[in-house]
């Protein structure tokens, strides 16, 4: 499944197995056995089974949710999932306030943040009844049981994955489509400006009003959140994308690396940074800070 996701010839993967973790008998022999099998498959059908080095060099493979996570990545993911479950169940401090929760994932380049985010999104979609796999029957209401009413498509929980980078957005769209998490391009994987516009009041000419949110998504995951704009441009009429995302989602999980901010339009003022990282616990946004750096060993809440 991991390799086939990176094959251009594969349009859909029906994977219903969880991501394999941990040690097992003969694990040390797996890589060589798999490479030998893949080499023979490549010989028989090079289009469906491209050379192993082509697969491993592909952007799809590098962002695949099927990478085996390290122990520290698993610990970080479980902490995020626990916080997410608490927030969606309404059992946290913001239960009755209507406030959003922001979860930051921080770490230097090369620490596996994108892989963690991709795996998180797949788990959220498949394990938490959010989005879920899409099939032809999804156009009909989901039939309930005697104890629970049917749920329409409109009432199902919604999760989105956002990135303000065209190439990476295309990669996430391919992954979401191949895994059956969306039917059409840009349904769950899209740029932040498009998401903000989708959840905004509109003018008479159908122009989105960034400072007037309309509705809330359940979960929004943001890759490379340091690329979010902190001022408006031609495609975004607001003043700060992260603030606008928080007004349109119950939970925002954001991968953030302040050392990769390269443009003036992405820089954070000291006032904004104080708002995101307050010294006191009191804030208008309930936060869980996951500081994940280096070897992922320094995990703190």
TrEMBL record:
It comes from Bifidobacterium pseudocatenulatum. Residues 101-287 form the Schlafen group 3-like DNA/RNA helicase domain. It comes from the Bacteria. InterPro entries: P-loop_NTPase, SLFN_3-like_DNA/RNA_helicase. This is Schlafen group 3-like DNA/RNA helicase domain-containing protein.
